[in-house]
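Journal club prep, shared notes

We agreed each person brings one worked example of a sequence with its structure written out as tokens. Mine is Glycosidase. I'm keeping it raw so we can talk through how to read the token line rather than staring at a rendered picture. Sequence first:
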Amino acid sequence: MNPNYLELFLRYNRNPILKASMWPYPVHTVFNPGATLLKNGNTLLLCRMEDRKGLSQLGIARSENGLDLWSIDPSPFMTAEPEIHPAECWGIEDPRITYIKELNQYLICYVSYGKTGPSVSLAMTENFEQQRKLGMVLKPNDKDAAIFPRKIGDKWVMLHRPIDQNNANIWISYSEDLMHWRDRKLVLGRRKGGWWDAEKIGLGTPPIETKEGWLIIYHGVKKTASGYIYRIGLALLDLDYPDICIKRTNDWIFAPETDYERFGDVKDVVFPCGLTLLADNDTIHLYYGAADTSIGVATGSLRNILDWLRNQ
Ligand code: BMA
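Then the structure, token by token:
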């Protein structure tokens, strides 16, 4: 922690909260979890689990307070099914969960990794007991996608990260049926030169609706002499026209600092895919993959974040 900066997110002092050695079956690493609150108020994390083949599938961890005493389901929740979905022959990764009240379903946007590259696939579940895969909805090369929790206008809306002429930026697309996505528009671009988010950016967690706009947490990557550094920034999108970015932080607000974030399978990575907003409508638990190896949580206040953003 650097005392000269205001820290918006504070790490839980018993991080990492989840690691491979806690799993009831063999996994090599656990990271980049999607997150949601269940109807009973418990926290559910859908964790990416990489095995010793190097391929990923998704498994569930649950906790009453979202911080400790995690119980891990005895078998994976979602596995790659290459016979049915060839796009996921090299695994499924980085889920983002949005609860859609209108459908009474949790929608899971995840990365299918296949021979033509990463693509965006969707699955639905009512209760995390079983799920239904809808298949690939955005062709390679595309990833880092999440759906907004309600229709805007009369359409479903998704943020995602296609690679477009070597540019990895955040785009928006619209759909009437969740399967066909169109009217793609650029929302947030990587910055240039020495900036912390100059190499590539991608959506982190699904958007949160606030009075001041849709709050998004995104990851930005800088290329350095010793490799990439994955850090986190914030942006606000217009409530009615979410293709318009009304605010974007200049500074990153969270970065690899602790040993478990700096060292692991991929060094210097913090990679959030999920958060929960607690019943007080203020406390945020931000869940992130640390060095592609374990899972950390950091706590913030929505009110403080919006106050801080207002003054940027
Ligand atoms: C990104 C994704 C993430 C991963 C990160 C750092 O491109 O593949 O799953 O955490 O790289 O390796």
